[in-house]
UniProtKB/TrEMBL annotation, chains A, B:
Residues 5-316 form the ATPase BadF/BadG/BcrA/BcrD type domain. It holds the Pfam family BcrAD_BadFG. This is BadF/BadG/BcrA/BcrD ATPase family protein. It comes from the Bacteria. Coiled coil: none annotated. CDD domains: ASKHA_NBD_eukNAGK-like (cd24007).
Length: 342, 342
């Protein structure tokens, strides 16, 4: 048996999967945020070790083993595209390997320690293979793709201040701006005003300043207001609908740019959609598909086959020479949760 | 002699002017930020007392007096439109009045203690009287006006996340977004990319993420990048020019809304422009005037007659029944500095 760990070091949670060489997920651990850029490197290291420890302990208890040999480790984190950050994470992984509390015998080579961006593991996990595009729209947004030559392309993903067009934050802020412009008399009337006032329990719209600036709302708290824009749009409000449609068009356009820069015209491309905006919002994904297929008819939209941590594990297995599952043509496993903890 | 204090409690500096009933400025004091929302109430109180103490000391030393009777106090601060904030400032003023180190005998009534928004004192100082419009475009932006019936109207000024269209921050962020979209392939080529890289000393545009998010840049540090967009526009770059023109149109439109909601059609309106975007940027103010006069031909643009602290002092004098200077029809005093410390 060959065992690898696949780790998704995210901003809200850290997931670790223990996977064997046939691609079976043997156990799963989860901990808090491992965003070292906001929370610091020690806190990230703790979260990663906690997730690993949980996954390993479940397996060892179940098998009545004392320890386990790990031959591959895949990990994905935001920001590792920069060399400085890559070095930070490499150093962090070295520290984790020396932690004697983990009941692990490590047998990792440089080759079998795979450190990648969060978008790369989302791509590989979402597709179940390495070639195609992932369209992410949650709090932030990003389009990321890779072709069969290993060339990658990122579009967007510049964060809430500099971009993230089409994201939850983008939709929420566009809705708030539209409500305030309407309040000023710079835009026609919209139900967004009453909807925000009601949802945030505000006497008047001026108090938005209090809410957004002084209460120290996080980017994801603001992004959560996207659902208000969606609700108002669903009731037929024209301004809210324009915001939703603009968000869709931004994502469609960004996806088209990624397709064109990686794939031949008429080449079939799988595109996996990930994130709360695609999942939670009324017809958003459907409209995205319709609009994208008008300009990219060979794009084939799928739901995530696995979670990003599985993508990290797959990358580690591939590095060891194992190509266990899913060439990308099997859509039977659309719900990643069904394959966990078996 | 009747003496009043006019205080401008700003986010970068606090200014206090000592003014007599004829409108003469007798002395001037200056201290650091009195933005209590970011720096806390104690720090704001210190800044205000320091500015007052400086203004008073200069005057007392010059006259060889031991103390002075102050009968009016005007103060303008951001955010006092909200009742809670108004109460906070009123309380702060009460504390200042009990400070025995200030060599002041206070003789203030509720009526002669005038607490107003920063935009109101900018309006009155900028115009030298109370009726007209102030168009502010610095780090942030706001249009604020008052008519002869005392009705006021604010347009914009919702802060960097929720609005401030046409501000330095707006121009800078629009420039950064355009550079990144161009980098992604979502927008045509623009000199903004090389200009930002050169100015910020970046090897690649990806490092903008490091600069904007991780170095903890303030809003005004980001807003300072507006000058890069302006420089690139001046060299003929189409995308940079579009950003500048959109900023101008946003300010023109907001000003038009304020004019229409306060004044009769064809009524002559004075509009004072304030802030670094109007002052520092190439032809910005000229283009603003041209564009505004196309839709509001009776709008008459002026440069600030006095600084905001003088506006605060004027309001205190008016409250005491003194209407010393400047009905708003005299444009001879366009440089406020010439009238200081005489």
């Amino acid at each position: 048996m060959v065992y690898v760990l696949g780790i998704d070091g995210g901003g809200t949670k850290t997931v670790c999967l223990l996977i064997d060489e046939t691609g079976n997920i043997l156990s799963r651990g989860q901990a808090g945020s491992s965003n070292y850029q906001t929370g610091g490197i020690d806190s990230a290291k703790n979260a990663i070790e906690t997730a690993i420890n949980q996954a390993i302990s479940i397996f060892l208890d179940h098998k009545n083993y004392n320890n386990i040999l790990i031959q591959g480790l895949g990990i994905g984190l935001a920001g590792v595209g920069r060399k400085e950050d890559f070095n930070v994470i490499q150093n962090l992984v070295e520290q984790v390997k020396t932690n004697s509390n983990l009941s692990i015998n490590w047998e990792l080579t440089t080759n079998s320690t795979v450190i990648k961006s969060d978008s790369m593991i989302a791509l590989v996990g979402g597709l179940g293979h390495q070639v195609g595009i992932v369209a992410i729209a949650g709090t932030g947004s990003q389009i990321f793709g890779q072709n069969s030559q290993g060339k990658t392309k990122r579009v967007g993903g510049w964060g809430y201040l500099l971009g993230d067009e089409g994201s939850g934050y983008y939709i929420a802020i566009s809705g708030l701006k539209a409500a305030l412009k309407s309040h000023d008399g710079r835009l026609g009337s919209t139900q967004l005003i009453s909807a925000f006032k009601h949802h945030l329990n505000l006497d008047n719209l001026e108090s938005l300043i209090e809410v957004v600036y002084r209460r120290g709302w996080t980017v994801s708290q603001i992004a959560n207001l996207a659902k208000i824009v969606d609700e108002v749009a669903r009731k037929g409000d024209e301004i809210a609908n324009q915001i939703i449609n603009t968000a869709i068009e931004e994502l469609v356009f960004a996806t088209k740019i990624a397709i064109d820069s990686l794939f031949e015209p008429n080449e079939s491309v799988e595109i996996v959609t990930i994130g709360g905006v695609f999942q939670g919002m009324n017809n958003f994904r459907l409209k995205f598909i319709e609009s994208l297929n008008q300009i990219a008819p060979t794009a084939r939209l799928i739901l995530p086959r696995y979670e990003p941590a599985y993508g990290a594990g797959i990358l580690a297995l591939n590095a060891l020479g194992y190509f266990p599952v899913n060439t990308g043509l099997d859509e039977t496993q659309t719900d990643p949760s069904t394959n966990l903890l078996n």
